[in-house]
Amino acid sequence: MFTCEYCNSILKTLGSLNYHKKTSKSCIKIQKEKNIIINTEVVMNCEYCKKEFIKKFNYNCHIVTCKEKQKNEFSKKLNDIEDLKKELEDLKKRNLQLQKELEEKEKIIKKRDTAINLKNKALATFLRIYFNYLKIMGTEINIETQLSCSKRLIDFDG
Ligand SMILES: [Zn+2]
Ligand SMILES: [Zn+2]
After folding, report:
1. CA-CA distance, 70 to 75, in Å (whole number)?
2. Centre of ligand 1 from the C-alpha of residue 4, in Å
3. What is the number of the ligand closest to the CA of 20?
4. What is the Cα–Cα distance from 142 to 145, expressed in whole angstroms?
5. Is the dihedral of CA 70, 73, 75, 81 positive or negative?
């Protein structure tokens, strides 16, 4: 025998008691007066520990303290930390790679600078010989001519 906790009706089975609670108009009226909502569709589940709650208030209280939820969040944080560690490792590798690339580029620039220096030296020697030749040939050359001549040669060369 089962007694309805709201209206004290006596039912033979648990199934019929549940059916009574959901369907008996007089019982539902008492439930409403006591401000209790019986509606199996409204049952809320804690997504972490699967506990069931009929009242949203109880659910809200539970969700703050649910151990499973805390465990879940803790492992999430651990995962986040692992992800960050991996990201850091990747960045370190990338940094190393970039450093190598930079070293290679610096080598190339150094080589190019050496080549430019050699070219400038060759050009200067050529100009010295050329101006000496002009002097020997008796050609008057002032500083402006020398400068424009150097400039033309450099332009031509570059
Ligand atoms: Zn009842
Ligand atoms: Zn829970």
Report:
1. 9
2. 5
3. 1
4. 5
5. negative
Compute, in angstroms, the gap from residue 34 CA to the centroid of ligand 1: 12
Angle 145-148-149 (CA atoms, 0-180°, nearest 5)?
Answer: 80
Does residue 52 surpass a pLDDT of 60? yes
- Written as one letter, the residue type at 57 is F
Q: How far apart are CA 116 and CA 46, in angstroms?
A: 74
Q: How far does Cα 116 stand from its chain's mean position? A: 45
Confidence of residue 154 (pLDDT cuts 50, 70, 90): low
Judge contact between 119 and 157, C-beta under 8 A.
Answer: yes
Q: Determine the distance separating the centroid of ligand 1 and the alpha carbon of 20, expressed in angstroms.
A: 6
Nearest ligand by distance to the CA of 34: 1
Q: How far apart are CA 132 and CA 81, in angstroms?
A: 75
DSSP 126: H
d(C-alpha 130, C-alpha 8), whole Å: 125
N-to-C CA span, the chain = 108
pLDDT value of residue 120: 85
pLDDT bracket for residue 158 (50, 70, 90): very low
